[in-house]
Amino acid sequence: MNFEKVLAERKNKVIYKDGDRTIKVFDSDFSKADVLNEALNQARVEETGLAIPNVEAVTVIDGKWAIVSNFIEGKTLNVLMQENPDKFDEYLDLFVNLQIEVHSKKAPLLTKLWDKMKRKIDETQLDATTRYELHTRLNSMHKHHKVCHGDFNPSNIIITPEGKPYIIDWSHATQGNASADVARTYLLFCLNNDQKTADKYLDLFCKKTDTAKQYVQEWLPIVAASQSVKGKDEEREFLLSWVNVIEYQ
Which end of the chain is more exposed for a tag (fewer CB within 10 A), N or C? Predict the structure, then answer.
């Protein structure tokens, strides 16, 4: 393999371009199970018909696991938003429409979001009372079976020169309640110190889908707790502040 250039560097992984392929190379100590699960998630989402990169291979390069997908030429929606501030509202509208399209799909073999959240709550270092309240709140939520991306943000959308959007990075994909996925996206904007866009995004999504904003907000403590388990140290305090907004009965 001839790596032409580095497309992105993330925690525990580097993404390269190799001709018409993208190669995501994980650190040597990265969990093999997590790599295989990510590839499986992507393959299962492919079957829904969503526009995403196709998995071509899972391999080992210099002792490191790697996922090979077809390369999508274009710019991320995040870059386009920064380059064209006058089109921000247009891009945000596209962003929300894409997420709604994701939620319209079913992939019955994906991990259930409810199961993942339950496990993550148990993995937190929160006290027993808070964990109990989070579990109680989770149990009260409706169990849907919609495809949820789990990390839906403008950096994970590539727009081709022809204007076609592709959604990338399906490592956190689950099936479950779409409002949990929306809560996650809302928190991602907040973590990026962009409260204005977070609020604008949530208002737009709720208006388009006729979803009560309060319903999404009920998911915020659960999603924040889940994300705090593997979140960056500098983000953990912020995420846990959302967990503590629980109203005790």
Answer: C
Q: In what order do the strands lie in the sheet with 165-167?
A: 75-76, 157-159, 165-167
Best CA proximity match to 196, nearest among 102, 103, 89: 89
CA 205 distance to own-chain centroid: 16
* CB of 23 closer than 8 Å to CB of 64: no
Query: What is the value of pTM for the model shown?
Result: 0.93
CA distance 202 to 179: 10
Tens-place pLDDT, residues 168-193: 999 999 999 999 999 999 999 999 99
Bridge partners for 76 per DSSP: 158
pLDDT tens for each residue of 227-246 = 998 767 778 888 888 887 65
Question: Is residue 66 within 8 Å of 23, Cβ to Cβ?
Answer: yes
Please say whether the beta carbons of 68 and 154 come within 8 A: no
Cα–Cα distance measured from residue 75 to residue 186, given in angstroms and rounded to the nearest whole number: 22
Q: How far apart are CA 160 and CA 242, in angstroms?
A: 36
